[in-house]
Write a structure and sequence with these properties.
The structure holds two protein chains of two kinds. Chain A has one domain. Chain A contains 14 helices and no strands. The longest helix of chain A has about 35 residues. Chain A is globular and about 60 Å long. Chain A starts with a helix and ends with a helix. Chain B is mainly α. The chains are: A mainly alpha, B mainly alpha. At the A-B interface, helix 5, helix 6 and helix 7 of A face helix 3 and helix 4 of B.
Chain lengths: ~325, ~180
Amino acid sequence: MTGFITDVMANFWAGLGIKLALIAFIVPTSALVFGILEIKISAHMQDRIGPYFVGAWGWIQLMADGLKFFQKEDIVPTDADAPVFKLAPVLVLMSAMAIFVVIPWGPGLVFGDLELGVFYALALSSLATVGIIAAGWSSANKYSLIGGLRAAGQLIAYELPLVLSVVGPVILAGTMSLSGIVEAQVVFGVPYIVVQFIPFVVFMIAALAELSRLPFDMPIAESELVMGYFTEYTGFRFLFFFLAEYAAMFGMMLFAATLFLGGYWAPGIPESMMPFVGPVVLLTKAGLLVFVAIWFRWTWPRLREDQLQSLAWRWLIPIALLNIAVTATLKVIL
Amino acid sequence: MTVDAWIAEPVNWVFSIVAVVILFTAVRVVTSPNVVHAALYLVAALAGSAVMFLLLSAEFVALVLVLVYIGAVLVLFLFGIMITRAPTGFDEGLSNDRKLVSAAISLVLLGVLSWASLSAFGTDTVNTVGSPTATEILGDAILGRFVIPFEVVSFILLSALIGGITVARRDLTPLEEEERKAV
C-alpha cells in the first residue's frame, strides 16, 4: 500500500493533482469546522445555545449557509472598479491557501518541503493585505475604504514582530524548513515554547493582528464600519472572504504549532506510527491554539489602531529583537 | 543553442511567458490612467520578477521580493495613495507630454544596465537550475565579503528614515506645549 502511494506521488503530475485536491479539500473544510466551532463556543461563552435545529446540535448550519451564498446574486456596485473588485477576494483566499503547502503533517508528509518554508509562509500570508486594500478601495464605499486603510495601517504594526518573533526558533533549529524545525525539536527534547515562550506570545499577538481577529479586528469592526473592507460583497465572493478568514486562522495556528509546539511530534509515539498519529497530534495542537484565538475574541475589547501601533513598536519589536540577540548569543556559547 | 534545444527546455517556456507578463504590466504601470491600478500592476510586475528569481535558483531573493516589496512597500504605497486621494475611474493629469525624453532615458538606462551586467558576468551561467541557492552561502556573503557595502546601505536607509521623520514631524507651537503640559 505504502509502495503504491510512493509510486503515484513520484509521478510529477499525479502528485501535483493529488496535492492540489487535498489542499482544495482542507481549506473549505477547516473553514466550516472552525466556523461552526466558533459559533458554538462563543454561544456557550455567552451562556447561549447557538444554532440548534439544522442537524444534531446545529452542526450543518454553516454548510447550509455556504450553499445559500452560492445561490445569492453576485452584485458589483455601479461605482465599483469591477475588475479589481472581482479579483480581490481571489487574492485573499489564495494567500490563505498558500501557507498549507509547507506545513508538515508527519515525517515526509508535506505538500512541498521548501528549504525556506518559514520565510515562504510569512511572505505569502502578507499578500492577503494587498487583496484586502484592493477590496476596500474598489468597493467605492467609505466604510470599505476605511476598513482597507486600517488593514494597511495594521500591517505596519504587526509585520515586523511577526517576522522577528520566528527568528528565535529558526536560530535554534539552524534551518528555515518547517520539517527541519520539527526534527530539530525532536532532537532538542522539548518543544521550543519551553525556551522561546516570550517570542511565542509575541508571535500570537502579531498573528491575531494579521488575521484581523479580536482584539485587533479594526479593519472589520462591525460596530463602526458595517463589515469593513467587505461590506459591499455578496454571494460567493463574500464566501471567499469568510473561507479565507478561517482558513488563514487555521493555517497560521498550524504554523505556530509547528514552530513552537513541536508540530506533529508527541512524546511516546513509536516512529512507525508517526505518519498516522502525526496529523492527529498536529490537528490537536493547532485546534487548541484556534480555541485560544476564539476565547480571546470573547474576552478582550477591540483596541484602537494607534494603541496597536504603540503596543507593537514600543513593546513587541524591542522584545523580539532582544530575544534574537539573547538566543543567538546563547546558541554560540552553548 | 539551436531552436529545438531551446524549445525542449521548459524553463525557457516559463521565462518567455513571465517575461511577456512583466513587460505588459510594467508598461501599464506608467500608462494606466488610475493611480491605484498602476500600483496594482506594479504588484503583478514584482510578482513576475519574483518568478524570474525562482528560475535563476535564487529562492531567497524571490521570497524577499514578495515579503518586502509586495507585502510591505506596495501596501504602504497603496496606503499613501488612498489616504491622500483615491478616485475610482479615471484620474486626470497623471500623464504629461514628455514621452520622447522619458523613452530616451529609459533606453539609455537599459543600455547601461545591460552593459554593466554583461561586462561583470559575461557568459557565466547558473549551473544548477532548479536547486535553490543555500541561504547560508548568501548570509555568509552578505555578512562576510560584502559586509561594508551592506552597512553603507543600512546607513543610507537610516539617514532616509531620520530625514523622513524630520520632514513629517511638526514641532508644537509654544501655546500647544502649554496646553499639553496642562493636561
